[in-house]
Amino acid sequence: MALTGIQIFKMTPKKNCKECGSPTCMAFSMKVAQGAVDISACPYMSEDALAQLSEATAPPMKTIKIGTGDNEYSLGGETVLYRHEKTFVSKTRYAAAVCSCMDDATVDAKLAAVSAVDYERIGERMFTELVYVNFAKDTDASKYVEIVKKAAATGRTLVLGCKCPETAKAALEVCKDGKPVLNGADASNYEEMSKIAAEAGVVLGVSGASLDELYDTVAALEKLGNKNLVLDVTMGTVKDTFEAAVAVRRAAIKDGDRTFGYPSIVNLVPLADGDKAMEEALAAAFTMKYGSIVVVSEMDYAMALPLYGLRQNLFTDPQKPMKVAPGIYPLNGADENSICLTTVDFALTYFLVSGELERSGVPCNLLISDAGGLSVLTAWAAGKLSSTSVAKFIAEQVEDKIKSRKLIIPGKVAVLKGDIEAKLPGWEVIVAPLEAVQLVKFLKDMQAN
Ligand code: SF4
Predict the structure, then answer these.
(1) Contact 400, 377 (CB under 8 A)
(2) Where are the alpha helices (DSSP H) in 176-210?
(3) Residues 148, 152, 156, 160: is their CA dihedral positive or negative?
(4) Other beta carbons less than 10 A from residue 281's beta carbon
(5) Contact, 234 vs 241, CB < 8 A?
């Protein structure tokens, strides 16, 4: 059970020395109880207290790491059920599936398609991070190992869906350096699979025919000393899988039951059964509830664009505005004589506007002033985007670097034009269209005239 701030306080050294960053030991204890600070931030805690508190104040769900280098991902570590309570910690990772039941051409095409989706949205790279390699019953083990080799060559982190110990062992031989997940333990084989995963130093995926069976198998694995686990909550139907995903998360977070305190895998391939639209809907549902790894049959742009947008919204910190740094952003080879445009520092606005400007091909300087990370109209209503803020930013940070004296302002704040011109003598202020998408034609027309 989680400890209260008072219980934690009783074990602190009570020096009130502030070295932990809190003004008093009591304030520190309260923060530790809320999960805002780690107990190790106090350098004076006795070993005894540290041992007791580390266990008691650890997040209810373990953080499990998979992959290596640039392809290392953290799963789990969540502390809340709902995103409005606190920020979710480890974003859902998507895996594209291949299977030993597929012919070579299909496997090759699916692996080639893994890199097809790769783009940036609001400063974050969106791509398929994982490949799920399924070993189907009654298929050839050596063919499976060949597919694992090919999948490893994509550079993506692998999840091996394999319940046969011998085959799993052979597959790990060719990919264990990339720290894949071995998703293959169940009630019938967990001892052997745990040994294989531990020897290879990889995370073990555990499944069960029911929640009770899953629970008992996890408890048995923990008894064996294996706590490097992810839970495959995929059941026979969508309804049962959904219930399992929610029940596992609730048990860990609300009831403090550490046996279910692990990240989860949801495999949509058997659940959607070839229905692409259903698979997309389920991928969205299990991104929200509570798949750490969601396996899909393939990832294309039609699925990725809404799904990654949803994930980005879900896993950003609502208390931190998504901002870009104020400054001058030259686009399309702009120099000091190129026309200037200004907008706010809200990241979504910046990336939308800069994307359209790049599309126009017209050299221009995008001037970003500090508007509190708010959108244009919100910043204007809050007084963060005003003729004064724009004029001050340009006078202090732009005029000595840029010779052009033409400034395009967002169409939604056309009302600022007169005031900016009054405050910035020598500048011609031009009002842009209302929507960013209209900027391409607007700039090209300006350039032509
Ligand atoms: Fe108290 Fe330790 Fe923080 Fe010092 S560093 S104020 S002793 S909790």
Answers:
(1) no
(2) 190-200
(3) positive
(4) 14
(5) yes
- Nearest 5°: phi and psi at 170? -65, -40
Q: Where do the DSSP E strands lie in 73-180? A: 73-76, 93-99, 118-121, 124-127, 130-134, 157-161
Contacts 24+ apart (CB under 8 A), 438-443: 439/353, 439/356, 439/357, 439/360, 440/356, 440/359, 440/360, 443/357, 443/360, 443/362, 443/364
> What are the φ and ψ backbone dihedral angles of 89, each rounded to 5 degrees?
-95, -55
Q: What separation in Å is there between the alpha carbon of 59 and the centre of ligand 1? A: 21
Q: What domains can be seen in the chain, in order of their start residue?
A: 5-57 (1.10.15.40), 63-315 (3.20.20.20), 327-448 (3.40.50.11600)
Tokens of 424: 């910035």
With a pLDDT cut of 90, the percent of the chain lying above it is 84
| Centre of ligand 1 from the C-alpha of residue 171, in Å | 49
Q: How far apart are CA 358 and CA 231, in angstroms?
A: 44
Residues having CB within 6 Å of any atom of ligand 1: 12-13, 15-20, 22, 25, 28, 42, 44
> Residue 150 is which amino acid?
K
Look at residue 424 and tell me whether its pLDDT is greater than 60: yes
Q: Would you say 207 and 262 are in contact if contact means Cβ atoms under 8 Å apart?
A: no
Tell me the three state secondary structure of residue 7: helix
23 Cα nearest atom in ligand 1:
6
Q: Above 60 in pLDDT, residue 1? A: no
| 98 DSSP 8-state letter | E
Separation of CA 23 and ligand 1 centre (Å): 8
d(CA 448, CA 446): 5
264-307 tens-digit pLDDT: 999 999 999 999 999 999 999 999 999 999 999 999 999 999 99
Candidates 8, 9, 11, 18: which one to mutate for ligand 1, based on the most atoms within 8 Å of Cβ? 18
Q: Is the ipTM of this complex over 0.95?
A: yes
Q: Tell me the one-letter amino acid at 61.
A: M
Which residues, in sequence order, are bridge partners of residue 161? 134, 183
Q: Are 326 and 345 in contact (CB under 8 A)?
A: yes
Strand 124-127 versus strand 118-121 pairing type: antiparallel
Report in angstroms the alpha-carbon separations of 370 from 2, 259, 347, 390.
41, 47, 12, 9
pLDDT digits (tens, 9 = 90+) for 354-375: 999 999 999 999 999 999 999 9
Closest atom of ligand 1 to CA, residue 29: 8
- CA 199/CA 434 separation, integer angstroms: 61
Best CA proximity match to 73, nearest among 81, 83, 63 = 63
Instruction: State which H helix or E strand residue 430 sits in.
Output: strand 428-431
